[in-house]
Sequence to fold (266 residues):
Amino acid sequence: MKKAQIRFVQQQLKKRGFNAGPADGVAGPITMTALDATGLVPEHWDDKRKLTGFVQSIIKEQDIDVGDIDGYWGPQTQFGYDTLLHFLKNGQIVQNWRPEEIQKPATFQNWPLQTPEDELVKYFGNPGENQTRLALPYPHRLSWDTTSRVNSFLCHEKVHDSLQRVLTRVLEHYGLQEIRKLRLDLWGGCLNVRAMRGGSRYSAHAWGIAVDYDPERNRLQWGRDKATFSKPAYDMWWRCWEEEGWVSLGRFRNFDWMHIQACRIC
Ligand SMILES: [Zn+2]
Fold:
């Protein structure tokens, strides 16, 4: 385990009121005793597993997908750790999310929670099922081949009407010229039966209830400092989505700014 990761463990222990000694990145007896005192990791694990298991618990606490708390640092743990650090570092930015400013019209859909997955299945059916074709209010372009025009795409039948209302409002507000200029027509996909990046669960795309826009300028790991969609020119774009209850991972978690989904993360 890296020094920075052990320092992270020590800081988290201190935050929770345990005496972990100085945050020096060395897992000595004081740190390990504090770890045992948390009761979060089995005592029969070796030190390395305990440290990893503790980090995994912290990640899980923030509702970030980390898989099983098994004490082994694999790609899923690494992804969860990176996501958590990013989230903690930009924590104050979450305050820019102002749900009280969002007007919820009569049509507002209270989309189901993303987890537990069986609740999502209860509402939408199995991944890939109940899809229908949405005729777009304005033509889109494929983000990976901008010369290809997209006039419709497959989405879940339960989000179809809502999607149509969102995009109609976007068109009314911005107009075609501005839409093109702001790259609101650069479509990165909707239905895609695949597991979540770094996870074993399905992504919201598997149900056709998530859409990606302009992935190139709103990359997965980019935060507010880099992602185009965080800029003020896009305030109305987000309002159109949020009034229909759609969730932007960028606005909510300050990562994956390309991604908008019709299920809640909390
Ligand atoms: Zn996405």
